[in-house]
Amino acid sequence: MGGVLGGDFGYEYSASISSIFVAILLVLFTFFFTLKVLYPLINSIKIPSISLDYQKLSYPALLVLAFGFYSAIFYQIGVAGLGDLANNNENQSARQLYALLQPAVLVLAYIFIYSNIRGPLYYLIVAFYVAYCLIAGQTGQLLTLFVLYIYCSSNREQLSFKLKVIFLTALGLAVYPFVRILKNAVIMQYVSGTSFFESVKSLLGSNLLNTYHTYLIQSFERFQVVANLSYLMENFRSLYVSTELHVIDFFNTNWIFNTIGSRTIVTRDLVDSPQSMLAFHINNVEGWNSHIGLFGYAFAYGVSGFLIVIFSILLMVIAILLSNFIDPSGKLRLLTWISILKLICFGWINAFINYIQALLILAIIMFCMHILMSLLPSKQADTA
């Protein structure tokens, strides 16, 4: 007795009730432990904090955003869905600088930290950031901005909050298919060389209603961690034997660990991620990924996969502490909470490492600005 799996599985794979039930329990346990136990516990730790006037941080954020535009337009770096197509020897310096700065995440953190600001410079950066997300196909960041808007609205209008959440959530689901179409058009534009409008026209096809319905169903099925875990459990033996993944392979997929590993004896040839291997196992098509959730690593890597789960928990602790250090007001914690939620649902640990890296770069910028501001008065006094 069972059913069929939707989403990436296209209703072509059956699943037993027992595996689906266990998958649901694993997901619920992960949610409860992470968001109700770990997050409040680490968040209660008192640490020193640093803060900076928004105008002093706005200009560095604007420079980083400008670099993001430059990288996406001229080198296709940071454009979602291109993968290795943007990785060539002609843009190594720009690619390495982008990997270090993480413009899409760093500027998003800035927007969250100063979400109570109503200044023109802040609005300018938000507008440019939305444009950058559209150019680079970063639809996930646009959804995160949507969550921030709901959060800010709830603080201003408490009485209508529940109604507004329901309305805006429904509106977001209704509009999201068009966002996905725009993202796919951006990718098609870079890959095939066609114009953006030709790509949109090709994706829409002759029947707009059918296209919208297809993308709407895909939008609802994006969060399919239960189906994926169920599939991993039922096909664990064949997946584990066919992939032969080693825990070092996981760390080598991140550019930081790969750089360190290439200079030591602890290195192996780069292999595909478990997400891409699962995707290929589903329909024998390369070039796409299917998320596996956090517990999926235990099925992909065997017993050593639990080391990756423990490593992920450590990353969550670091992210929460960094958020409290950078923004004592607590607004950045909302972005960290959302990032942890994404990590639980999708299992994109490298993306979460990039988030922590962006927070570290942001903290370094703020610390340097503090030092610079403290030196300026003394210089003026010496001149007098």
Biggest pleated sheet: 2 strands, antiparallel
Span between termini: 85 Å
- What does the overall shape look like? globular
Major sheet: order of its strands? 1-2
Which key terms come to mind for this protein?
384 residues; mainly alpha; two-stranded antiparallel sheet; 18 helices; 2 strands; disordered C terminus
What does this protein look like?
A two-stranded antiparallel ribbon has the order 1-2. A hairpin with a 7-residue loop joins β1 (2-5) and β2 (13-16). The chain is mostly helical. It has 18 helices and two strands. It is 73% helix and 2% strand. The longest helix is centred in the last third of the chain and has 35 residues, at 349-383. The chain has a domain at 1-46 and 225-372. It has helices at residues 17-43, 54-75, 92-101, 103-113, 120-136, 139-156, 161-192, 196-204, 208-220, 225-234, 236-243, 247-252, 255-262, 274-283, 296-301, 305-326, 331-346, 349-383, and strands at residues 2-5, 13-16.
Topology readout:
Elements: E1 2-5, E2 13-16, H1 17-43, H2 54-75, H3 92-101, H4 103-113, H5 120-136, H6 139-156, H7 161-192, H8 196-204, H9 208-220, H10 225-234, H11 236-243, H12 247-252, H13 255-262, H14 274-283, H15 296-301, H16 305-326, H17 331-346, H18 349-383
Antiparallel strand pairs: 1-2
Tell me briefly what this model is.
The protein is mostly helical and 384 residues long.
